From TrEMBL:
Topological type in the membrane: Single-pass type II membrane protein
GO biological process, one term: lipid catabolic process
Family: Belongs to the 'GDXG' lipolytic enzyme family.
Top enzyme category: hydrolase
Location relative to the cell: Cell membrane; Microsome
UniProt superkingdom: Eukaryota
PROSITE patterns: LIPASE_GDXG_SER (PS01174)
Protein name: Neutral cholesterol ester hydrolase 1
Coiled coil region boundaries: none
Residues in Alpha/beta hydrolase fold-3 domain copies: 109-266, 321-381
Major site of localization recorded for this protein: membrane
Keyword annotations from UniProtKB, A to Z: Cell membrane, Endoplasmic reticulum, Glycoprotein, Hydrolase, Lipid degradation, Lipid metabolism, Membrane, Microsome, Signal-anchor, Transmembrane, Transmembrane helix
Amino acid sequence: MRAAWVLLAALAALSAYYVYLPLPGTVSDPWKLMVLDATFRAVQQTCHLIHYLRLSHHLIVLNYLICTFDKLKSVSSEDINITDAVFDGVEVRVFEPPAKRDERLKRSVVYIHGGGWALASARTSLYNNLCRIMAESLNAVVVSVEYRLVPEVCFPEQFHDALRATKHFLQPDVLAEYSVDPSRIAISGDSAGGNLAAAVCQQLSKDEHLTIRPKLQALIYPVLQAFDFNTPSYQQNMNMPVLPRYVMINYWIDYFNGNYDFAHSLLINNHTALDVGQALSFRGRLNWTSLLPSSFKKNYKPVIQTTGKAEIIQEIPALLDVRAVPLLAENETLQLQPKTYILTCENDVLRDDGVMYAKRLENAGVEVTLDHFDDCFHGCMIFTIWPTDFSAGIQTRNSYIKWLDENL
């Protein structure tokens, strides 16, 4: 019996050691976040082992586990009509609130989910719940885009899916079918979905044949650049849940169907060293020393290599493709962007991506609202359902919906 107690105590100590992470004192629900992160790490390690054994791709296994766990949750949608459709070959899920008396047309949001271009779905309860609440709170038609994922397809297919679905929806006859006001449409997304939303908005703004354009774009902790993995937020939050720096770099490599052997070189910015000619013209568009406020720069220093590896850009040219990295777009494109909302979190490697994009848009004459949360972390807005319910999720979701309600 004594041996059993000793073993139990040892297992408890090991579990506590695995779960515990030193977190900033401002993070909300720290222990719950540690448990969530430990769960993610354990699942990811299991999936990578399966990949190593060549039984299946780790992202396929991870997505299967996410969807299997998600089936255990039930989210009510009695007041919202939810239908699945296909827009120009792309699956979407449409959330429609009931028609109100004397109401002719509704507002609308095209929403693109996150997940590193590889995980989650418009049909999971996390995004189903978010879009349902958006439809109810805004009395708006919400179109959630079910773009194809890595490893089934890689860049630029996710971008093409999001663009095709959005352009299809913006057709006058389709908007009329859903009773949507053509002058009150927003494009939105979180994380990798924020990346796709920003890229889609940029592309739409340059389409001379488009008769209907979005009124707003709303980006939630978007990932916008793969040029510099040593911005202050990347350095400050390199080991933060839910998105450590190495995980974000791996998502980029998977998105571009690149070689994992480049991961360390990307981490130290070898791909954008001073001797990499392809990157020179973009350097001025992502100078965080001038784009970030001093409160974010703190005492961090730029990491700029004198000599690097030009072959990385040669093998993965998409690293400098503005359809994948919207923060590198030219000023002429930024001037065409609609009124913009960008939500950022202090405890997030992607914080500075959003802040820099807000500043570049502002410099280009676009009206921008930067909604920053000191106590929140990456991905928090979708974590509002037990057992992954966080006060940070409710806080950010309410702020986001409030802005849409006041501006759409």
